[in-house]
Automatic annotation (TrEMBL):
Membrane topology qualifier: Single-pass type I membrane protein
GO cellular component terms listed in the entry, alphabetical order: plasma membrane
Domain of life according to the entry: Bacteria
Entries under SUPFAM superfamilies matching the protein: Cell-division protein ZipA, C-terminal domain
Similarity annotation: Belongs to the ZipA family.
Entry protein name: Cell division protein ZipA
UniProt biased composition (Basic and acidic residues): 59-68
Skewed-composition ranges (Polar residues): 97-110
Main localization, broad class: membrane
């Protein structure tokens, strides 16, 4: 073989190797980024097992429970349910060997116990739901409900009231409710077995996102409440239909002009993400799995409170046979403005969460149309939200209040 032929063969081999290497690199670049095993990543980063390589805080590597706050009274921070810091005690053998130290005179002097690790123990979601079930439904409020008193001739048992309740709790597209005035504490409550009531009331919501209460729905409300009153032998006194329907339209007009749902989109700059990769990074800033596949939530600071933020991505990717092979190019971060109390600083936390996720996952923050959101644009949005909060407060419909959550639903 001549020198020329040998040179051409070598060059051809190098070109072929280069093509193979390039194709391999492109394939790897297009593969979705997957979540790292905490133990492996800790060792690789020189960190003790169980610590976040991005910081100094301990990370619970157990898979979190799938919990989502319910519409009702506050849900705790960190898990969508209440959490308690429970010390992990040392076993008895360690306690015996470390609890005291001998001193020269032969006695033992108790020494301070060594620091113990703590873990956040989530309360069972079933227990949380049961504890909140009696209070989860907001009470009737004259601000957003049509209310009619129902007066029995004498005391009526809770058993009779419950048996006479309508089978449905809706009138058209509006929630319908019956409450009784408790003889024990003098407060309105959902009728309960074993109680006695001298006064009850029925109500229907004036407006929600389906629109204002109309004449047909008001007539259905009257028929349903009257049937219930007749069943327990009580008298009723309904308000004027025209006045209530006009009030419903006025409330609906206000709600339509002050309903806000804010959303950011995080888009991958280069490599796509796997669902596990997204979940791992979201969990580091406080998100927990929601009740639906492809959804995570940032819980509020109080039990039963609506989630502050929601993070969602393709549910089909989350339910795939091998989710780590699913590729996500974008995830959505959303805020239900009227459902979250102003005191939680939801927009500030939304910006912080979006920025943290964009940096850690190599993404960019955009609007729904794919246009990047600048700091100035976010400042303008924040200023507009403050004006919205002021308007809601002035109408006694503060964001996150039971009345606001019912009206904007």
């Amino acid at each position: 073989m001549s020198t020329l032929q040998l040179s051409l063969a070598i060059i051809g081999g190098l070109v072929l190797a280069g093509v193979i290497a390039y194709n391999t690199w492109v394939t790897r670049q297009n593969e979705p980024r997957t979540a790292r095993d905490p133990a492996v990543s800790s060792a690789a980063d020189g960190q003790p097992g169980g610590f976040d390589p991005l910081g100094d805080e301990a990370v619970d590597t157990r898979p979190p429970e799938r919990i989502e706050p319910v519409l009702g009274e506050p849900l705790g921070e960190g898990s969508g349910a209440a959490v308690a810091d429970t010390p992990i005690s040392h076993d008895e053998g360690d306690a015996g060997s470390q609890g005291s130290q001998p001193v020269p005179d032969g006695t033992s002097t108790p020494q301070p116990a060594p620091p113990v690790a703590t873990m956040r123990e989530p309360v069972s979601p079933l227990k949380t739901a049961l504890s909140a079930s009696a209070d989860r439904k907001p009470k009737l409020d004259a601000l957003i409900d049509v209310i009619t008193p129902i007066e029995p001739e004498g005391a009526v048992s809770g058993d009779a009231v419950v048996a006479a309740l309508p089978t449905t709790r809706r009138v058209g597209s509006k929630p319908f409710a019956v409450e009784g005035l408790s003889d024990l504490n003098g407060e309105w409550e959902v009728p309960r077995l074993g109680q006695r009531y001298h006064l009850l009331q029925a109500g229907v919501q004036l407006a929600n996102r389906a629109g204002a209460l109309n004449d047909i729905e008001f007539s259905e409300f009257v028929a349903k409440a009257q049937t219930f009153a007749d069943a327990i032998g009580a008298a009723t006194d309904f308000p004027d239909m025209r006045a209530e329907v006009a009030r419903a339209r006025e409330l609906d007009a206000f709600a339509s002009g002050h309903d806000a749902q804010l959303g950011f989109t995080l888009r991958a700059r280069r490599s796509a993400w796997s669902p596990g990769f997204v979940a791992q990074h979201a969990a580091r800033i406080g998100f927990v799995p929601g009740a639906l596949p492809g959804r995570m939530v940032l819980p509020g600071s109080e039990r039963g409170q609506a989630p502050i933020l929601s993070l969602s991505f393709d549910a089909h990717a989350a339910m795939a046979e091998d989710p780590e092979k699913s590729a996500l190019r974008e995830v959505a971060l959303s805020l239900e403005v009227t459902h979250v109390p102003r005191s939680e600083q939801p927009f500030v936390r939304m910006r912080e969460a979006a920025t943290a996720l964009a940096e850690s996952m190599e993404g960019v923050i955009t609007d729904d149309a794919g246009q990047p959101l600048s700091t100035d644009t976010m400042d303008v949005i924040g200023s507009d939200l403050e004006n919205l909060y002021d308007a809601l407060d002035s109408h006694d419909l503060s964001a996150g209040s039971p009345q606001a959550r019912r009206l904007f639903s």
